[in-house]
Structure formats: C-alpha cells, structure tokens
Amino acid sequence: MPTDFEIVFGRDFEVVFAPVFIWVMGVVGLIFGSFANVVIYRVPKGLSVVKPPSACVTCGTRLRAWELLPVISWLFLCGKCHACKAKISLRYSLVELLCGVLFATMAWYAPLWHWTRTDRLGYQTSFSVVPLAVWAFILITIASIDAETQLIPDGLVLTGAIAGLIFIAGGIIFPENFPSSRTWYDALLGVAAGAVPLFIIDRITLLVLKKDGFGYGDVKLMAMSGLFLGWRLMLVTFFIAFLLATLYIVFLAVRGRARRGIYMAFGPFLVAGTLVAFFLGENLFEMYFEILGGTP
After folding, report:
1. pLDDT tens column, 247-269
2. d(CA 264, CA 277)
3. How far is residue 81's CA from residue 74's CA, in Å, rounded to a whole number?
4. Residues 32, 161: one domain?
5. 176 within domain boundaries
6. What are the helix and strand counts (H, E) for the chain?
7. Percentage of the chain modeled with pLDDT above 70
8. CA-closest candidate to residue 157, choices 92, 107, 231, 215
9. pLDDT of residue 21
10. Using one digit for the tens of pLDDT, what is the confidence trace for 20-73?
C-alpha cells in the first residue's frame, strides 16, 4: 500500500499534469486534423496522402510551412489562397478544430494517469487515450468523406478496427493500463449490435423497395465502433443517429429542398450518434431509467 506521502504526491502529480496533458492532446489533435483534411481530399480520388506536398487545390501552388498551421493559417490568410486569392473552404478549419477538441476530450475521458490505491506510487499510467484518439480521428475523417462523396473507405474502417482490437486486447492483457477498455464479450456484442441491425434493414429495403437502404460502409463503420462502445451504448448511438437524420430531413422538407429517391449520407449521423453515446450514453441511460422509475 502507498504511504501518505506517496498518496499526496500521486494526487498532486495528477492534478498538475492532467490539464497540461489535455492541452497537449488538443494541439496534437489540431495537427492530426490538418492531416485529416489531406486524407479527406485525396483518398476518395485514389491519391497518395504522403506525396506530393500540400498545394492549393485551385492554382496548384505549393503551400509553405506557415500556410499549413492548423486554423491559424486560415485566419491569417482570411480564408483565401496567398497566391491566387481563391477561397479556402471553412471545412478545413472546422475539421482541425473538431479533431483538436475530440483529442482533448479523449485525454480528459481517459487521462494519462489514473488514481489507484494498489499501485506503488498511488497512480497508474494509462494508454487508453492512444486508440481512442485514433478512433476519433477515423470517425471525423469518415464523416467528412461520406458527407462529400457518400463513400466510406475500407482502409479507414480497418485502421479503426485495429485501434479497437488494441483497445480491447490492452484491457485484457494490461487492465491497469487500459482502464477505459470494454470486456471482450461486451465488445463482441457491440460489433453485432452495430452491424446486424443495419444489415437487416438494408436487406429488407432491397427486398421490398428494390434498392439499397444502407451501404455496407455504414455496416462496417458500426461494427468497428462497437469495439469501443459495447452493446448498450450502441442502442444510444442508433437512437441519436436516427433522431438527427429525421430532424435533418424535416429541415430540408421545410426549406423545400427534400427530394424523393435521393440518397443521403448516413455516416455523419452515425458518427454524431457514436460520439454522443460514448461521452454521454451512460448518463442518458440513467436519466431514462430514472424517468421510468427503474434501474439500468
């Protein structure tokens, strides 16, 4: 058991460095957000994400180092290319900001150090934030690509699945270093709960309406996210996703922009539901059962 000095030192260490780690992860997230923009633009076109160096999509001028600073460059350039003055989409900065916020939030959710009275120094190093940050990066990238192209690249889903398997395996082999991990059976049920309903809906839609209901990309996306969410939070994911999609359709109908027979990318709604479920799902479950007067 740790001594009183070690307990106080461990707690002070966590209090001092946890906020620093959150800010550092936020900055790392901004950098990964900049890379996410490269992936979003190039992968659907079948281009390499490594070379050539980043350039203006309008005039082809190679971007200099100071033009690649996440968010700051866009603000400094007033949203225009330095060479040709072509407008730079706000989407680039929004993706960078969202990645930064998500990385920081993951660092808050799964801090690098977590308190435990069984450890010799009173705290234990956690590596959960690494696969969680990779997962957040994958989700934002997939949502953006699907919104623009209605495609979900298999390579991104596979990368997320590998991160999920590391997340689960780490919790099994090193439980003290992966305290946020799911149990293997909860993860397995999460994969099934994510993939099977969408697959069944897609088959029924194809049988009745003679057209696809959901793409297999959505099925794979939810199977991958099930590794991180488990089956309970997958229920929240679907509820939030379908609710947001319904509200969006109503909005389009009110604006007179809804069209029958037009396909709509469902990936962004699934990603939004996934993130809401991950951070707030258990609280929503508790609220729901409190209203019903039962226990979760």
Report:
1. 998 888 888 776 766 678 899 99
2. 22
3. 9
4. yes
5. no
6. 8, 2
7. 86
8. 215
9. 85
10. 888 999 999 999 999 999 999 999 988 889 888 888 888 888 888 888 888 888
Is 171 domain-assigned?
A: no
Q: Are 161 and 186 within one domain?
A: no
Q: Residue written as tokens 């979003």? A: 40
Structure tokens belonging to residue 223: 């199977």
The verdict on residue 173 lying in a domain is no
Q: Nearest 5 degrees, angle CA 180-CA 153-CA 245? A: 75
Instruction: Answer yes or no: do 282 and 148 share one domain.
Output: no
Peptide bond preceding 52: is omega within 30 degrees of 0, i.e. cis? yes
Q: Residue 136 belongs to what domain range?
A: 1-165
Q: Distance of alpha carbon 147 from its chain centroid, rounded?
A: 15
Amino acid identity of residue 131, one-letter, is P
Q: Which amino acid is at 86?
A: A
For residue 1 the two structure tokens come to: 């058991």
Q: Cα-atom radius of gyration of the chain, to the nearest Å?
A: 21
DSSP string, 40-94: HHHGGGT--SSSSPPB-TTT-PBPPGGGGSTTHHHHHTTTB-TTT-PBPPTHHHH
Could you give the 3-state DSSP secondary structure of residue 114?
strand
